[in-house]
Write a structure and sequence with these properties.
7-stranded antiparallel beta sheet; 21 strands; 8-stranded antiparallel beta sheet; 240 residues
Length: 240
């Protein structure tokens, strides 16, 4: 016992820092375990599909939710998917998951714009448009979602116009993607079809009774006024 006490007295300058480090490591371990448990509680396998370059890709997605039932991760079970803003459609369900942060615009509210968080879930229920944003679910009307680059998702039916001429009517829950002002890709939910069109130098607009967007110049019309579309990262989160 005396030898132990003598050793501790001689080595206390080394032992104290070691004990502090050990205590910190134990604390970090338990905090990490709690974080991991909180953020990766429930994993659900969901049949989904996406359209890439006009080609439909169906696969099983692993959707992970935390203890607060917030979606925190999405990954393909077997496929190799490079996620961007391309909407993820649930098979045989009227649900769409957005794997990136998106802007939300309200043309009938003076073109007001906000953002919705990554992994926001859209659902069409009995004629009502629902958005589940960070586990907070609320219905919204007369809006569209956009990624700030060229992709636009429309809850209601719209018409694509090329040089002010009607080109294609899209059903609800469809989207349009204008890449670099040269290539237009659309996905029509009802027919489950996609098309790629070369539109260099052409004016592309999307219209409906309540929506009028100039995709070429990235602005919407709200009661005759032009409202430029801001990037989602520069917007405040939509209120719930």
């Amino acid at each position: 016992m005396e030898k132990i006490i003598k050793f501790c007295r001689e080595k206390y300058k080394i032992l104290i820092p070691l004990m502090v480090v050990l205590g910190l490591l134990i604390t970090v371990y338990f905090l990490y375990r709690e974080y991991k448990y909180d953020n990766y509680r429930n994993k659900e396998e969901v049949k989904v599909y996406q359209h890439f370059g006009g080609i439909k890709t169906s696969y099983t997605a692993i959707v992970t939710r935390n203890l607060r039932n917030v979606i925190v991760d999405v990954d393909a079970k077997k496929e190799k998917i490079q996620y961007d803003a391309t909407p993820i459609y649930y098979k045989d369900e009227e649900k769409v998951l957005f794997p990136s942060e998106m802007g939300i615009a309200f043309p009938l509210k003076e073109g007001s714009q906000y953002k919705v968080y990554k992994y926001t879930l859209y659902e069409y229920m009995d004629g009502v448009h629902m958005l589940n944003i960070a586990s907070n679910e609320k219905d919204y009307n007369n809006f569209f979602l956009y990624d700030g680059k060229g992709l636009y998702f429309f809850p209601d039916a719209v018409t694509i116009n090329i040089d002010d001429k009607e080109y294609k009517e899209l059903s609800k829950m469809s989207y349009v993607n204008l890449v670099g002002g040269y290539t237009l890709t659309y996905y029509d939910k009802e027919s489950d079809t996609s098309e790629i069109i070369e539109v260099e130098g052409k004016k592309i607009t999307v219209t409906s009774d309540n929506i009028n967007i100039n995709l070429s110049s990235k602005y919407l019309l709200s009661f005759g006024n032009k409202v430029l579309l801001a990037k989602p990262e520069n917007l405040n989160a939509v209120s719930n």
